[in-house]
Amino acid sequence: MVQARVTEPARPRIEILLAAPRGFCAGVERAIQIVEMALAKYGAPVFVRHEIVHNRHVVTSLEAKGAVFVEELDEVTAGRPVIFSAHGVPKSVPAHAREHNMFYLDATCPLVSKVHVEAARLHGDGCELVLVGHAGHPEVVGTMGQLPAGAIHLIETVGDALSFAPHAPDRLAYITQTTLSVEDTKAIVDALKARFPNIIAPRKGDICYATTNRQESVKRIAAECDNILVIGSPKSSNSVRLVEVARRAGCNNPCLVESAENIDWQALEGASRIGITAGASAPELLVTEVLNAFAERYQIEVREVEVTRETVQFKLPRALTA
Fold first, then answer.
1. What share of the chain has pLDDT > 70, as a percent?
2. Is 36 considered catalytic here?
3. What structural domains and CATH numbers belong to the chain?
């Protein structure tokens, strides 16, 4: 008996525009490396205060190697190292560690530390400080915690900038969170400058190179894409901003996905060109998994769109390299 051959329907074609740069920045790579080197040098467990970066895949991977993530220092086992996350911490945290003779390593991104130094300098010069950022974000908590309570005023929106009433309008300065939308921040700063023409700006912009580059790469592809997938965590400020930037730049259907498992394939039906990028705390492995998931369902053509090439590297703590 001759059996009929069942012919599978041809997979639809889809073009994928892969934004570059994407994924890990130098600060994230340094923070992860600090945890891995501490585990190699001191053995497990090594404690980490808060998520080292905002990505569940990274955290789970480090937990498997012996890292223990805690919320506060009183959860750290006596005698074991503790690492502060890439987002930075208030001054009270290392002070507490020193008071209790704890050995700690600071994985704060050097570009966040730059903002901390800037805040201290401006405060020392007698300036009243404004921080443009998002309330509750660990970086904002850490930056505001560099100075006495009330020394920094948080501005989140243009509305905040328009209603802000400083004590010393002639001695006003601003700093910003490093992972904000470039355009949103400009609108807020422009509103502040319109009201306070003498406001002092950072010597160099505080929004970091990686945030800026990832936003520029998304802008480059957004108008060409039916959908854009931003790989990253909902906790990740720079990842959430990429979704906003993509929508503003002309893509009607951008969405944030933590991994290939979270893709809503039904929402992509009928699309002929998809954009893919990844936030600064998302590993390239997750990008590869998303591409493989597309290859299982489509005939894919991948085109990388690169706006610049990043070569930044940061030094590791001397305690790990000595």
1. 97
2. no
3. 13-24+209-306 (3.40.1010.20), 26-109 (3.40.50.11270), 110-195 (3.40.1010.20)
